[in-house]
């Protein structure tokens, strides 16, 4: 890929929706990718005729922030903005109309992105955090985008890592807002400190002298990644970041880079209906198996990290490879 792939980045469009990467918060993946894609000398070509792929550099987060009318429950103006943008590049260049957008791609982390792009960008390769097949995610064409929560854009790798297996005294941990139907069920069965091995909270209590969120993840064997309103959660990448085994409870979730990574070798998938059996499931995993999974979490961690400048095999390269892989697969189906 590194030797041959060339990407054309459209320069048209106005800030803040286009060309303005958001580098902090839970939607940071789309911003970091935009920033690093636009700056890439290895992959970007200024001659669109030489491009294999065409990148649409808009922010789904800024689209919502700039144009959504709070309380309206209406996304038409957001969709119309994107349609106007496509009309602009379609009128100026032949490339969109040539393939109907099949060699174009977008990278979007906001929950609404699948619905807003489903029709007008139907043939595009869509890298989406909300990778839900029931929400229109097209398996084999679209790409599951890792949701990364960046707290400090100047130091994205701050606090990386965690305790070794022998020092992880907590069986499992979860803390978060009670979004959706699943998390209240998790809290109902395992919350309120009823079991000291099952540290399951809503909002993590802030008590002086107690562990914070990151310290809990660094000290736990397993970290619960339960869906909220949508199938995705930043906890999947956070668990890997802190070298905790991700326990994914989200029945329709397509994990990132699944075409390259064997997720079952370093993560646990629990069906939503099996929440009452969660502790039993985790305790049934032999210690040897847990240590193997922990070793593999540390090994795959490199694929989920943002660096100030892209590093080979990091998250930037993995996202771009997934897009390229799906494009090649789409052109040459097996």
TrEMBL record:
Gene Ontology molecular function terms on file: glycosyltransferase activity
Cross-referenced Pfam families: Exostosin_GT47
GO cellular component: Golgi membrane
Domain Exostosin GT47, residue spans: 2-283
Protein name listed in UniProt: Exostosin GT47 domain-containing protein
Keyword Transmembrane: yes
Bilayer disposition of the protein: Single-pass type II membrane protein
Subcellular location per the Swiss-Prot or TrEMBL entry: Golgi apparatus membrane
Family under the similarity heading: Belongs to the glycosyltransferase 47 family.
Entry keywords, A to Z: Glycosyltransferase, Golgi apparatus, Signal-anchor, Transferase, Transmembrane
Origin: domain of life: Eukaryota
InterPro entries given in the database record: Exostosin (IPR004263), Exostosin_GT47 (IPR040911)
Species the sequence originates in: Punica granatum
């Amino acid at each position: 890929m590194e030797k041959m792939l060339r990407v054309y980045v459209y320069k048209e469009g106005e800030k803040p929706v286009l060309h303005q990467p958001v580098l902090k918060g839970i939607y940071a993946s789309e911003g970091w990718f935009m920033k690093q894609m636009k700056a890439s000398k290895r992959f970007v070509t200024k001659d669109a005729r030489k491009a294999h792929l065409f990148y649409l550099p808009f922010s789904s987060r800024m689209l919502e922030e700039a144009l959504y009318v709070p309380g309206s429950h209406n996304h038409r103006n957001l969709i119309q903005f994107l349609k106007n943008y496509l009309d602009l590049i379609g009128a100026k260049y032949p490339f969109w109309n040539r393939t109907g957008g099949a060699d174009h791609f977008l990278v979007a982390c906001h929950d609404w992105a699948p619905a807003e792009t489903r029709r007008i960008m139907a043939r595009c390769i869509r890298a989406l955090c909300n990778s839900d097949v029931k929400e229109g995610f097209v398996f084999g064409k679209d790409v599951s985008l890792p949701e990364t929560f960046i707290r400090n854009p100047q130091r994205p790798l701050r606090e990386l890592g965690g305790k070794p297996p022998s020092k992880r005294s907590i069986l499992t941990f979860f803390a978060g807002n009670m979004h959706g139907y699943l998390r209240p069920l998790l809290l109902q069965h395992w919350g309120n400190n009823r079991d000291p091995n099952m540290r399951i909270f809503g909002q993590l209590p802030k008590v002086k002298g107690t562990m914070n969120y990151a310290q809990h993840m660094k000290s736990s064997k397993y970290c619960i990644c339960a869906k909220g309103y949508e199938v995705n959660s930043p906890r999947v990448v956070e668990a890997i970041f802190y070298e905790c085994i991700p326990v994914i409870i989200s029945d329709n979730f397509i994990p990132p880079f699944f075409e390259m990574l064997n997720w079952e070798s370093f993560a646990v998938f629990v069906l939503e209906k099996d929440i009452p059996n969660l502790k039993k499931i985790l305790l049934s995993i032999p210690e040897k198996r847990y240590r193997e999974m922990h070793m593999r979490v540390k090994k795959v961690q490199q694929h989920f990290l943002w660096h100030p400048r892209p590093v080979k095999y990091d998250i930037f390269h993995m996202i771009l490879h997934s897009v390229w892989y799906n494009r090649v697969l789409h052109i040459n189906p097996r």
